[in-house]
Write a structure and sequence with these properties.
The chain is of the alpha/beta class and 433 residues long. It folds into 2 domains: 184 residues, Periplasmic binding protein-like II (D-Maltodextrin-Binding Protein, domain 2, 3-Layer(aba) Sandwich); 204 residues, 3-Layer(aba) Sandwich (D-Maltodextrin-Binding Protein, domain 2), CATH 3.40.190.10. It contains 21 helices and 11 strands. It is globular, with a radius of gyration of 21 Å. 52% of the residues are buried. This is Xylobiose transport system substrate-binding protein. InterPro entries: Bact_solute-bd_prot1 (IPR050490), SBP (IPR006059). It comes from Streptomyces zhaozhouensis. Keywords: Signal.
Length: 433
């Protein structure tokens, strides 16, 4: 996202920020937040949905005296550049993020505007969004972001043509998943493509395995600071399941060299080289944009299977509730007024319709009536209903945890999937974060 779900990086020093911003982000201008009176610098994660943001920037610029300059940052560089630039004179005025832990450092340093009162003072604006989605991106009950994309649960995508040719159906249990691994391996098809070059894709497997094994309450404990929860037997069991999938050949032999941010995994999947792909819901939009024939004729979807003996609800979800726009605290005066008007565009039915047309499910209320206009109404309804009916929606671990925990966690997950740590060593390493 090209995934909007990215691993988080450590907060870099301002001195480095100024150097990087000056040399690699010159296109963002030199005025910085609040520095110029005639423009707002807006950064967005570059992917298949960026055209929608550009369309609405163009629409905004037609009537506003304060113009918006939209800078698209490639997915594999977005987090690094964003975290580097914040606090420097070249920081964006408004920027794309994941809410929650992804912006906690900035909130602590008073780098963001608290939007809580702005939303409350205009009910038409604040009430336009699902409360659970606003809450998911909040920090200590305060809102520092406005939803700007669709909901993003992690979904088990599969190639329906390959499944039909093999005479099989999507797995409903982990045992059935292992059976499918053998079935497709015998047919010289990678059972499930995995972009091991980007360890956050491995995280998705472990998130679901733990959720199905021990329930969503277990990670809630971890997120709330109970590091002893990493020692729960369910964590060990989930790690063992992950190792067994690797050893069984579920991801092939070369998954460590596959990347997602360069579209390698998605292309491999679309070319019929893999039968399944566990990925965020944005995968549909990517395929629709880049491999439309595959998206229309072969792409299908299912929920992640249950784990036999686990206590987790098989209807529970993991992923990103959505993405958010946040505003730099240096924005003020006429630029702040313009920023608010820009944010309000994202509460409109017109914007929701554009997201639906791109295969996304908006976070605004009363969206169900728009789903028949989606490129694949069946997929839209599937995604909407799974989010609506989910008993829990766990935010991606690397976004829910602070950066000082998320980075070593991703390192440990990468070592688990590569065989550098066994399941017991992984649990020990996580307890020692």
């Amino acid at each position: 996202m090209r995934s909007p779900k990215r691993p988080r990086l450590r907060f870099l020093a301002v001195s480095a920020a100024c150097t990087v911003a000056a040399t690699t982000l010159a296109a963002c201008g030199s005025d910085g937040p609040g520095g110029g009176s005639d423009s707002l610098e807006v950064w967005v994660y570059q992917d298949g949905s960026t055209t929608i943001q550009q369309d609405f920037v163009d629409q905004f610029n037609e009537t506003s005296d304060i113009k918006i300059n939209l800078t698209e940052i490639p997915g594999d560089n977005y987090q690094d550049r964003m975290r580097t630039a914040m606090g420097s004179p070249n920081a964006p005025d408004i920027f794309f993020n994941w809410g929650g832990g992804s912006i906690a450092d900035f909130v602590e340093e008073d780098m963001l505007i608290d939007l809580t009162d702005t939303l409350a003072e205009d009910p038409e604006f604040g009430d336009a969004f699902l409360p659970t989605i606003l809450d998911a991106g909040a920090i200590d009950g305060r809102y520092y972001g406005v939803p700007m994309r669709g909901v993003q649960p992690v979904i088990l995508f599969y190639n329906e043509t390959l499944f039909d040719e093999a005479g099989v159906t999507p797995p409903t249990t982990l045992d059935e998943l292992f059976t499918l691994v053998d079935t497709f391996a015998e047919r010289d098809i990678t059972p499930a493509v995995l972009a091991g070059g980007d360890p956050w894709t491995e995280l998705m497997w472990l998130e679901y395995l733990l959720d199905r094994q021990g329930g969503s309450e277990l990670f809630d404990r971890i997120r709330n600071g109970d590091t002893s929860a990493w020692g729960d037997p369910a964590v060990l069991a989930a790690a063992e399941h992950a190792v067994h999938l690797v050893d069984a050949g579920a991801f092939g032999n070369n998954f460590r060299s596959v990347s997602y941010t360069t579209d390698g995994a998605s292309t491999f999947f679309a070319q019929g080289e893999a039968a399944m792909h566990l990925m965020g819901s944005w995968e549909f939009s990517n395929q629709l944009s880049n491999q439309p024939e595959f998206a229309e004729n072969d792409l299908a979807w299912a929920t992640f299977p249950a784990v036999e003996g686990g206590t987790g609800d098989p209807a529970a979800l993991v992923g990103n509730p959505t993405n958010y726009w946040s505003v730099n605290s240096r924005v003020e005066g006429e630029k702040w007024d313009a920023a608010v008007e820009f944010l309000k565009l994202h509460a409109s039915e017109e914007y929701a319709s554009a997201l639906v047309g791109n295969g996304d499910i908006p976070t605004t209320a009363d969206v169900e009536e728009l789903l028949d206009d989606a490129p694949a109404p069946e997929y839209a309804r599937f995604q909407y209903e799974m989010v609506r009916d989910a008993p829990s929606f766990t935010l991606s671990w690397d976004q829910a945890l602070t950066a000082d925990q998320a980075t070593p966690m991703l390192d440990n997950i990468e070592k688990l999937f590569s065989g550098q740590l066994d399941a017991e060593q992984f649990v020990e390493a996580m307890q020692n974060l």
